[in-house]
């Protein structure tokens, strides 16, 4: 917090949008601001009401260079915005540098207004900066996936030190399931440089051939700008690339770094617009083809030509006998595909497409 | 090769401005305090490196400069607005 921890001494706080940036539709500006306030009201007793005239507690404006306070903006880049701690007059106000390119997207060609506003409103409520990488109150801008964006625990701890939650405990991510829970299911699984990563919600189980222990991580500890809940993932080992899928977008990473220009729409891989998400994906190193599983069908994607193969989609049950009609996750290892549906796992010989055996999903965790 | 002097000087000026904005660095204007200024600036660089989890050297190395050049919030990291 700021020195002496200034905070609003009331639960009903008003805000007013004084002007707009020409970079975005007014409705998109209003939505970004409202969504940013929602983030904070979801973990505190605070309620935010927008007013359209007169003085509000939090006055929001866009301006460039000198704009009437002692902290002039500095042109494109550098300082993007600033805000004042709770108090009368300029207290609580948030200023955004009009010399930046504001956007509602999370591409690399501008700054996402929702993310910057959520950070600045943290200051308007009394939070200072955090040095926890990945926290919203970290001083440096990081482009992140903003759909069902979740506050970092550090942000929640900070704001609740100022505004004690009166309602049921704040929206914390569900606890990590036990490794040997017989009902354990996964969202996505992929190999990565010889290791195998199992994803569920924001959690990762990391199985390495070098250590016997399973390592427990979170997605944000590897890729802070990716929010948990992948639908599918697969590795193309020849290019040292892993692709993650969530809803109708996908990202490519190499190790810890996300390739620029992502996320991209899954339609850019050749899916029809009727496909809104991918359930599972697995790459066959021998044929250089990747199988994408959607509902009870699957597609085959040629990584060399970067295009979908003709004659697809085909029924999963027709070509992969014995594993059922839909799958949640898949990966390949040592000449076998491993398909996961619920808490069951199916080992399939890649060449013969023959079911070898059925196991529990968490059989890799030395249970 | 040694950094071209004006580039180095330019980086130093940039870093001074950054530390003034976000780390409460105040430079003594009179040249009598040149040595004191350098120490004071090194201390502030250390403070910034420690905040961002960089190696704390007190030197204006490439990683430290790159971090200073990242787009960011205008609020200081160690002091509120007066």
What does this molecule look like?
- The complex is a heterodimer of chains A (367) and B (82).
- Chain A is mainly beta and 367 residues long.
- Helix content of chain A is 13%, strand content 31%.
- Chain A has five helices and 25 strands.
- The two termini of chain A are 45 Å apart.
- With 82 residues, chain B is mainly alpha-helical.
- Helix content of chain B is 54%, strand content 2%.
- Chain B contains three helices and one strand.
- The longest helix of chain B has 19 residues.
- Chain B is globular.
- Classes of the chains: A mainly beta (367), B mainly alpha (82).
- The interface between A and B is medium-sized, with 27 and 17 residues.
Task: Give a quick rundown of the structure.
The complex is a heterodimer of chains A (367) and B (82). With 367 residues, chain A is mostly beta strands.
By DSSP, the count of extended strands of chain A is: 25
Distance between termini of chain B? 43 Å
**What profile does the largest beta sheet of chain B have?**
none
What is the CA–CA distance across the termini of chain A? 45 Å
Query: What is the chain-wise order of helices and strands of chain B?
Result: HHHE
Uncertain regions spanning at least 5 consecutive residues of chain A: none
The best one-word shape of chain A is elongated
Give the fraction of residues assigned to helices of chain B: 40-55%
How much strand content do the residues of chain B show?
Answer: under 5%
| Total DSSP helices of chain A | 5
- In spatial order, strands of the major sheet of chain A run 2-1-3-5-4
Oligomer: heterodimer
How confident is the prediction overall: mean pLDDT of chain B?
Answer: 83
Q: Summarize model confidence as the mean pLDDT of chain A.
A: 91
Question: Largest interface, by Cβ-Cβ below 8 angstroms: which chains and how many residues each?
Answer: A-B, 27 and 17 residues
Please give the radius of gyration of chain A in angstroms.
24 Å
């Amino acid at each position: 917090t700021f020195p002496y921890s200034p905070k609003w001494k009331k639960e009903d706080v008003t805000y007013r949008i004084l002007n707009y940036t020409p970079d975005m539709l007014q409705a998109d500006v209003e939505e970004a601001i409202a969504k940013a306030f929602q983030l904070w009201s979801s973990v505190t007793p605070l309620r935010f009401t927008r007013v359209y005239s007169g003085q509000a507690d939090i006055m929001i404006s866009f301006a460039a260079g000198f704009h009437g306070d002692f902290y002039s903006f500095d042109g494109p880049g550098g300082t993007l915005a600033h805000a004042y701690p709770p108090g009368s007059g300029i207290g609580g106000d948030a200023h955004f540098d009009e010399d930046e390119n504001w956007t509602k997207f999370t591409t690399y060609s501008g700054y996402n207004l929702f993310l910057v506003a959520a950070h600045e409103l943290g200051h308007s409520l009394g939070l200072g900066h955090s040095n926890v990488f990945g926290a919203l109150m970290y001083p440096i801008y990081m482009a992140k996936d903003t759909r069902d964006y979740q506050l970092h625990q550090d942000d929640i701890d900070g704001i609740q030190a100022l505004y004690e939650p009166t309602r049921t405990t704040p929206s914390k991510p569900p606890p990590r399931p036990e490794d040997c829970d017989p009902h354990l299911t996964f969202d996505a699984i992929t190999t990565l440089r010889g290791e195998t990563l199992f994803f569920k919600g924001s959690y990762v189980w990391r199985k390495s051939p070098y250590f016997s222990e399973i390592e427990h991580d979170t997605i944000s500890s590897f890729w802070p700008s990716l929010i948990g809940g992948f639908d599918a993932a697969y590795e193309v080992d020849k290019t040292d690339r892993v692709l993650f899928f969530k809803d109708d977008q996908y990202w490519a990473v190499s190790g810890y770094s996300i390739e620029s220009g992502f996320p991209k729409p899954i339609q850019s891989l050749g899916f029809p617009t009727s496909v809104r998400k991918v359930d599972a994906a697995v790459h066959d190193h021998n044929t250089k083809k990747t199988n994408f599983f959607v509902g009870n069908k699957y597609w085959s994607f040629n990584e060399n030509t970067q295009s979908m193969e003709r004659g697809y989609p085909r029924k999963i049950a027709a070509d992969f006998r014995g594993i059922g009609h839909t799958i949640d996750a898949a990966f390949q290892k040592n000449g076998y595909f491993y398909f996961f549906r619920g808490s069951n796992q199916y080992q399939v010989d890649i060449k013969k497409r023959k079911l070898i055996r059925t196991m529990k999903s968490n059989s890799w965790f030395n249970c | 090769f040694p950094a071209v002097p004006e580039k180095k000087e330019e980086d130093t000026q940039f870093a001074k401005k950054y530390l003034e904005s976000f780390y409460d660095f105040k430079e003594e204007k009179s040249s009598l305090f040149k040595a004191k200024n350098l120490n004071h600036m090194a201390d502030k660089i250390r403070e910034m490196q420690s905040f961002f989890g960089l190696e704390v050297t007190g030197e204006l190395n490439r990683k430290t400069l790159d971090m200073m050049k990242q787009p960011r919030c205008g609020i200081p990291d160690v002091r509120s607005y007066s």
